[in-house]
Design a protein that fits this description.
84% of the residues lie in helices and 0% in strands. The protein has nine helices and no strands.
Length: 167
């Protein structure tokens, strides 16, 4: 159960981690430092209080406090980058849809599969990977995925300017 709480929190926090990096590049370091100090102030206290109810409560406190520790970062990014939360969610939709499909497929394989632990794990990893890729490539997200692939390829093919290498 604690791992489930932490997995849910990581899903939320992964968006904020990227947001932190963008905010730093936009020179909002004072805000990101303030949020880090807020986390430092409230999370240990929350863990201490939650410890009375056990490990599940400690793990759940990460998710329960995410509106205080994560949402302001996402809101600041939306404001700074001048994008709406709807646009931000639209950008996350392919990954969310593929993740939900992957989770469903892995749980189904896990439920119906017998055999040795390592073969079960290998089948779950293969199934999860295959379903994730299939959802991204077959559904309406294909054009977005291909746009990212073209962008990444263009980065690899871009010539490096000699002036960028000199001090």
């Amino acid at each position: 159960m604690p791992l489930m709480w932490l997995a849910l929190f990581v899903a939320v926090r992964s968006v904020a981690t990227l947001s932190d990096q963008v905010l730093v590049s936009l020179r909002h370091t004072k805000f990101t430092m303030s949020m880090a100090l807020l986390n430092l102030a409230i999370m240990p206290a929350a863990f201490w209080i939650a410890s009375r109810w056990g490990l599940n409560a400690v793990a759940a406190s990460w998710l329960i406090l995410s509106p205080i520790t994560v949402l302001p970062v996402i809101g600041k990014l939306a404001q700074s980058a001048q994008i709406s939360l709807r646009e931000m969610l639209a950008a996350l939709t392919p990954g969310l849809a593929a993740t939900c499909a992957m989770l469903t497929a892995v749980l189904l394989v896990r439920e119906w599969q017998a055999g040795r632990a390592y073969t079960r794990l290998a089948a779950q990893v293969f199934t999860g990977t295959a379903v994730y890729v299939i959802v991204l490539l077959l559904f309406p997200f294909r054009t977005k995925v291909l746009r990212y692939v073209r962008f990444l390829r263009s980065l690899r093919q871009a010539p490096i300017e000699s002036s960028a290498l000199e001090p």
